[in-house]
Design brief:
The protein is α/β, with parallel strands linked by helices. The protein is about 55% helix and about 10% strand. Helix 10 links the parallel strand 1 and strand 2.
């Protein structure tokens, strides 16, 4: 369900809520950071209503059930919570005795969701655009800098004219993409908390005629409505940070697919690279 849940909760005039349901709405509006991770029973206890009242409330808002409503709140808050709020939420919801298991299982879940929800037509369109681009510009700021660097490192081995835009002063970002034009590809990468500068750079690239690809997490992203091609990978709030395991896996798939578009060229490129790596002692040589 694509809707702003806070707007739904605030719009009391159009919803026929009981007294208890109004209390639920007011609690979520004031404590959405906590409500996002409560079960229906715990939310009911906090508000002073029954669990069944909470479940009916979700239905009144148009959700299929309480889990769907809670998911909508979680998606909404990820770009709103400060780092301090994230730590507070994590301390209340995460079992500190089993952090390793909790984090790895959450990453596995996000990989599964990304795979099952992947739009193959968008993925193929992105691969075709990258493979045929005159110039490729990659922008990822804040926590997405590492993703942009990884993607740029490998695309630079597969293609000419790959530009990794450095996260410097805002004016310098535009100086680095000032020549972007039709026939070029702009790849923007951003996950909560979303980088405003990446979205603005994407808007500039789109106005300049480039094909714009957005790697992000879902419909709440500022890339929606800006990017020509959107690729979603689920990230998840892990205390003060977001897991980028699924986005990295999506980037791995992009790199492999682009390489598969021109196998002979890639084989020749890596033959030359192997010679360079040996001649200049780039890697430690195995014993023997």
């Amino acid at each position: 369900m694509e809707r702003n849940i806070l707007a739904l909760l605030s719009d009391k005039s159009s919803s026929h809520l009981s007294k208890g349901q109004r209390r639920i709405a007011e609690y979520i509006l004031q404590n959405y950071d906590k409500a996002a991770f409560m079960t229906a029973g715990k939310l009911g206890q906090a508000v002073g209503v029954s669990e069944s009242t909470v479940v009916r409330f979700a239905g009144e808002l148009g959700y299929d059930g309480y889990p769907e409503m809670r998911k909508a709140i979680q998606e909404m808050i990820r770009s709103r919570l400060t780092a301090v709020q994230r730590i507070e939420v994590a301390s209340e919801t995460m079992d500190e005795a089993h952090i390793l298991e909790t984090v790895l299982m959450a990453d596995i879940e996000k990989l599964h969701i990304t795979l099952t929800e992947c739009d193959h037509s968008c993925f193929n369109a992105a691969v075709d655009a990258i493979a045929s681009a005159h110039h490729i510009y990659i922008v990822g700021m804040r926590s997405s800098t590492s993703l942009a660097g990884f993607l740029g490192f490998y695309l630079n081995l597969l293609a000419e004219n790959v530009h990794i835009i450095q996260d410097t002063a805002q004016s310098e970002v535009y100086e680095q993409i000032m020549r972007i034009k039709e026939g070029d590809v702009f790849i923007g990468i951003s996950y909560p908390r979303y980088s405003a500068r990446t979205a603005k750079a994407m808007s500039y690239a789109k106005r300049s005629g480039a094909t714009v690809i957005g790697l992000t997490d879902g419909e709440n992203s500022p890339f929606v409505g800006l990017a020509d091609i959107l690729l979603y990978a689920k990230s998840d709030m892990m205390s003060f940070l977001d897991s980028l395991v699924a986005p990295m896996s999506l980037i791995n798939a992009l790199i492999v697919a682009v390489g598969a578009k021109n196998k002979e060229h890639i084989s020749d490129t890596f033959q030359r690279l192997e010679t360079i790596w040996v001649d200049y002692d780039v890697y430690e040589r195995s014993g023997g």
